Amino acid sequence: MYVLQAVPDFASFPVHIVLEELGVPYQLNILSFEAGDLDRPEHRALHPFGKIPALVTPDGPMFETAAILLWLADRHGKLAPAPDAPDRAAFLSWFFFTSYSLHTGMMDLLHSEGTAGEANARAVADTARARLIQQLTEMDRMVSTRRPDWLSPEKPSILTYYLSVLLRWLKAFPTFPDLAIDSTTFPALYAVLTAMERQPAAIRAAQTEGLGGTFFTDPKAE
Amino acid sequence: MYILHYAPDNASLIVRMVLEEMGQPYRTALVDRSTQQQDSAEYRRVNPTGLIPAIVTPRGAIFETAAILLWLSEEHKHLAPQPGAPDRAAFLAWLFFTSNTLHSAARNLFYPEKYAGEPAAESVFAAKTRERVTGHLTLIDRMMQSDRPDWLRADQPSVLSYYVACLIRWVQLYPQKDAGWFDLRTLPALHALCQDLQSRPAALTAANAEGLGPTIFTRPIYADPPEGSAL
User: What pLDDT digit, counting tens, does each position of A160-205 carry?
Assistant: First the structure.
């Protein structure tokens, strides 16, 4: 039985959806950021620097959103090309791209004061937004030209859910509201979001975390 | 035969060392940074993000340093815990941490002009970035001392040990105008790992090919490559 250390709408959200999609038994351990739960020794024992998510597995606790997603996909043989599949190469490229470029860019857009101090927050957020738009444009072009099986509206994968959650946050939570990134600008990615928020697994996880309606495509309206 | 698209002393170095360590045949294709070849239409066809490295395999092109490392380790079942192994979970966690946290912070350090947003922000940005890089490396060092993982230790190379050692090299060298602040001796487990790795034949062969000189991880000097440009 897995145990997911979660805070609603934190990076545990894509892991939560994937556990639902896999249909494996797990326990959701909801923590409160405001109450300081992340600094408590019980959580620190599962995550070396007290962040979210952490997943307790039969092989020990593990951290890092993308690492957990990939480990779950490999372990259960679902939701990603297997290690010996021909499209593992392209999948891994775009999966690490999402973690290395999009996820870190998202942090700069949403928490820019942490990157360069309060006085420079706007400049950092502006440049992060420009970079993210360029990167998402590349990804959108790749999806519309190559139509990969592992990033498609037809079929959930660990990448469709990871990307959907990132695009939710890019639209809903930038420090400077005028810097929100509108996912409708990327039609092929938007089609993925539209399909993913209709998946029963995603709806169940969203409801448990208090999110409803158009939680991927139009988070402000939910 | 793999084709590694590379620039000397760029992140492609990590992949070159791993290919050498695995004994896999490959040839290199220079991406000439002095003429911004990484932005050319030709290179963008291999890697749409324009970052170095990319590698062409029988299964198509792969980009993103960590993706290439993980794929090679799976393809050749070498230099990393395989899927299903009990230490795969911890290995993946620290591989992703190295990529999206340590490597991305190192990139912020090397190119403050790209991430700080405006010249006035650069010095605060650089100072905060140095703190972050030190913090991340300290976490890795402590984990090595407490957990003693097989996939990140002196005397037994892995894709992750080459990845971390190369980042440590560059943190000591770049950006050139701010170099010299980092002292590897404060991190004993990583220092030992770097010392061991830099004397391995795979590292020496790669260092020689790219003109890196001696002690490439513990006391690095700037590259003097036979072709191409590091910056």
Answer: 999 999 999 999 999 899 999 999 999 999 999 999 999 999 999 9
Which DSSP letter does residue A128 get? H
Q: Is residue A104 domain-shared with residue A26, that is, in the same domain?
A: no
Q: Which of A21, A16, A22 is nearest to A3 (CA)?
A: A16
- Measured between beta carbons, the chain B residues lying within 8 angstroms of A87 are 59
Range of the domain at A52: 2-76
Residue B76, Cβ density class (10 Å: 0-12 exposed, 13-18 middle, ≥19 buried)? middle
Tokens linked to A171: 């639209």
Q: Which residues of B touch A143 (CB under 8 A)?
A: none
- Cβ-Cβ contacts under 8 Å, B94 against chain A: 64
d(CA B50, CA B44): 6
Say what the pTM is.
0.97
A208: in domain: no
Q: Which CATH number covers residue A98?
A: 1.20.1050
Same domain, A102 and A131: yes
For B49-75, b where at least 16 C-beta lie within 10 A, e where not — what string? bbbbbbbbbeeebbbbbbbbbbbbbbb
Rg (CA), chain A: 17
**Taking a C-beta distance cutoff of 8 angstroms, is the pair A156, A79 a contact?**
yes
The residue of chain A with its CA nearest to that of B87 is A59
Residues A97 and A190 in one domain: yes
Contact B92 A124 (CB under 8 A): no
Element (H, E) at B62: strand B60-63
ipTM confidence: 0.96
Separation CA A132–CA A126 (nearest Å): 10
